[in-house]
Amino acid sequence: MKRIFISQGDVNGIGNELLLKYFSEKDYAEDNIYTIIGSRKIFDRTGSVLKLSTSLYCDVSEEQVKDITAPGLYFLDITQGLCELNFGHATAEAGKLSGDAIKKGVMLARLTGGKLVTCPINKYSLNLGGYNYPGHTEFIAELLNTDNFLMILDGGVIKVALVTTHLAIKDVPAALSSDLIYRKGLILRDSLIKNYGIESPEIAVLSLNPHAGDGGLFGDEEARIIAPAVARLNENAAPGRAKFTGPLAADTAFTVKNIEKTDAFLVMYHDQGLIPLKMLSFGSAVNFTAGLPIVRTSPDHGTAYDIAGKGIADTNSFKNAVEKALLLR
Asked: 87 in a domain, yes or no?
């Protein structure tokens, strides 16, 4: 029996709908303890709008959460009913609640040895609410007082890991260094071995510039930064445990042949990896933060304000996030 904590996410998005649909379909491992963290009032209100029952969720206090031994569905209300529902809108109130739920979820997962699944947040709303972070990954890493983390997007047929995460394109070159790529490569290697059980992973490292710099014609980061990191990984950190290849030109890296022989792609910036991942796996992929002292996963999509409250959200990625959290070591 495992403990899964689920932060409610932005209540004006589709997070509550994902929760209500997934658990109402009974397509989950019922021998675990699932605790949702957020606003019970809005959870019930969303259930009423969508005509989905919330009666199966047992209210618990923070003191009780740590002592639960019976499998089931539980709800930890951290709002005292003060938040309001406003589908499709970014509000400071919803942003603060989403941040508060993440903080509580991280603390409880760490304290109890549980795992954390995070429903989608709206980054603008989060910042309005006083949490000045570019996303879940950086926020959770700071809460756990570590910079030893890596965002891995797992689409089943393809896994991509990000050297830089939520960063403007113009800031990426200055943020890259051989040491950073080396450290992220180590986390990726260790995660593939430890979390995924891949004994000797094959890892492709992508270039930054078009055609991998074309001999320096389009930039020298490949020769100056990326290639030395790949060599260092292979020479000092990976013998017998993993193989790193690269830097590979990004426009030809994601061929069918390369995907079939590669366990994960280490990419230099967000869209370089997210575009091919979402083309191949959107709606089913899972975001996993490797390197943390807790297991944390989330769906591969956002709050979907445009369809919030309409009852048409697809639960597939959320389902995969819960199941991946249960499987990951």
From this structure: yes
Strand order in the sheet with 159-162: 58-59, 72-77, 33-38, 3-7, 115-118, 296-299, 286-290, 150-154, 159-162, 264-267, 202-206, 243-248
Both structure tokens of 268 = 């230099």
Examine the domain organization and report whether 120 and 99 are in the same domain.
yes
Phi and psi at 326, nearest 5°, equal -70, -35
Task: State pLDDT tens for residues 157-198.
Answer: 999 999 999 899 999 999 999 999 999 999 999 999 999 999
Torsion angle of C-alpha atoms 262, 264, 268, 272, degrees rounded to 10: 80
In this structure, the answer to whether residues 7 and 79 fall within a common structural domain is yes
Per the prediction, the chain carries an average pLDDT of: 95
Model confidence at 8, pLDDT cuts 50, 70, 90, reads: very high
- Domain final residue pick, 279, 302, 317: 279
Number of domains in the chain: 2
Based on the fold, state whether residues 179 and 159 are members of the same structural domain.
Answer: yes
Residues 299 and 215 in one domain: no
- Amino acid type, 159: K
Tell me, yes or no, whether 190 lies in a domain. Answer: yes
- Under 8 Å between Cβ of 281 and 156: yes
Quick: pLDDT tens for 242-275. 999 999 999 999 999 999 999 999 999 999 999 9
**Does residue 96 contact residue 131 with C-beta atoms inside 8 Å?**
yes
Contact 37, 76 (CB under 8 A): yes
Answer whether residue 82 shows pLDDT above 80: no
